[in-house]
Amino acid sequence: MKLKKLFFTAFMFVTFWSNAQTQFETEGVIVPRNIEINGGKKIQLNGFGTRSKAWVDVYVQALYLTALSQDPQVIMDSETDMAIRIEIISKMVTARKLTSAMEKGFEKSCGEKLNAMMPKINQFKSLLSEEIVKGDVYVLSYNPKEEAISVTKNDKLKGKVEGKDFKKALFGIWLSNEPADEDLKNELLGKH
């Protein structure tokens, strides 16, 4: 009985402590529990993880939602405020490499709709074409009122890409049935 009480007390302490945290840290990156998008709309951290390529950690990514969810289809179909935050942690990441990786992700995410989506994908890639340095932070946020993805780099708006279809394809890069990284998908869904 004492062991059960001790376990319960320890569990409650850990739960309280993690709920009280306002940020997390991984790979030297501070991941905030909440961010504000779309004119002050506060959304919460659903999950975060590190994207690795050829055994090198390249960026820390976090998924922010209005309501937490572990169902990727619900997230991709949702018409609520949401965002992906990407912080570059490797000097090896360039604009060319990032856009190339995103294009491969769109190929899987869009499937047979890829050709129809190419104008929006190219518009999106153009917003990522500036030089990238370690420490750059991108926020790809969806505004359901505008039905558009806003792309910000280091808190500066680079542009927007319209369409619910584009939002679903973009989030599908990491959440679809063929994600860019299965481990990262599970981390973004909070399934560590």
Task: Describe the model.
- With 192 residues, the chain is of the alpha+beta class.
- It has six helices and nine strands; from the N terminus they run H-E-E-E-E-E-H-E-H-H-E-E-E-H-H.
- The protein has a seven-stranded antiparallel sheet. The chain has a two-stranded antiparallel ribbon with strand order 1-2.
- Strand 4 and strand 5 form a beta hairpin.
- The chain is globular and about 40 Å long.
- The two termini are 30 Å apart.
- The N terminus is likely disordered.
Radius of gyration, taken over Cα atoms and rounded to an integer in Å? 18 Å
Helix/strand/pairing category: alpha+beta
Q: Average pLDDT, to the nearest integer?
A: 87
- Shape descriptor: globular
How is the main sheet built? 7 strands, antiparallel
Unreliable runs: 1-19
Strand order of the largest sheet: 3-4-5-6-7-8-9
Distance between the termini: 30 Å
Write the layout of secondary structure elements.
Layout: H1 2-20, E1 23-26, E2 29-32, E3 34-37, E4 41-53, E5 56-65, H2 72-77, E6 82-88, H3 95-110, H4 114-126, E7 137-143, E8 148-153, E9 156-162, H5 164-175, H6 182-188
Helix pairs in contact: 3-4, 3-5
Which key phrases capture this entry?
192 residues, alpha+beta, two-stranded antiparallel sheet, 9 strands, 32% strand, globular, disordered N terminus
Q: Gist?
A:
By secondary structure, this protein is of the alpha+beta class. Helices cover 38% and strands 32% of the residues. The chain contains 6 helices and 9 strands.
